[in-house]
Specification:
Length: 140
C-alpha cells in the first residue's frame, strides 16, 4: 500500500491524526466549473489506494457546493461503509448546512462543528456489527 505522505491531492490537505485522516478542503467552490470527477478520484484513492478507513472532511473554507460535488461525498461514504470505515463532516458553512438540510443529507452524514469533535467521535464509535459482517466472521 502506498504511503499517504506521497499523495499530493489538488482538492484537500491531509492531516493524519492517529487512525483518523482529516481532509481539509482547500477550494471555496466545489462546482461543475471545477473538475468534480477529479475530486471524486482523489476521494476514492484515499480509501482504495491508501487504505484510509476513518475520515473527517473539513468544509470550513467551502462557500459553494453543487449536487454533483455532494454526490462525490455520498460515494465516499458508501465506499467507506462497504469497507467497514466511517466518515464525519465538519466545518460546514451556513450555505452548505442549508443544502444538507434541504436534501436530508444532514441525517445521512455524521456532522460536527470542529475537526477535534469529528476525530473524537470516530475514535470513540465502535465498529458496528452488521449481519453481513457476522456471517463473514463465521465463515472464516
Amino acid at each position: 500500500m502506498a504511503a499517504l505522505s506521497e499523495f499530493k491531492p489538488v482538492y484537500f490537505k491531509i492531516d493524519e491524526r492517529g487512525a483518523v485522516v482529516v481532509l481539509h478542503i482547500i477550494r471555496a467552490s466545489l462546482s461543475e466549473e471545477d473538475n468534480i470527477e477529479h475530486l471524486g478520484q482523489e476521494l476514492t484513492m484515499i480509501v482504495d489506494q491508501f487504505g484510509c478507513r476513518l475520515l473527517v472532511v473539513n468544509f470550513e473554507v467551502v462557500s459553494l457546493i453543487t449536487s454533483a460535488a455532494l454526490g462525490k461525498f455520498i460515494a465516499l461514504h458508501r465506499n467507506l461503509h462497504r469497507r467497514e470505515g466511517r466518515l464525519a463532516l465538519c466545518g460546514v458553512t451556513d450555505m452548505m448546512a442549508d443544502v444538507l438540510s434541504a436534501t436530508k443529507l444532514d441525517e445521512y452524514f455524521r456532522l460536527t462543528t470542529t475537526v477535534d469533535e469529528a476525530v473524537a467521535m470516530l475514535v470513540a464509535e465502535p465498529v458496528s456489527e452488521s449481519p453481513q459482517n457476522a456471517g463473514k466472521q463465521l465463515e472464516a
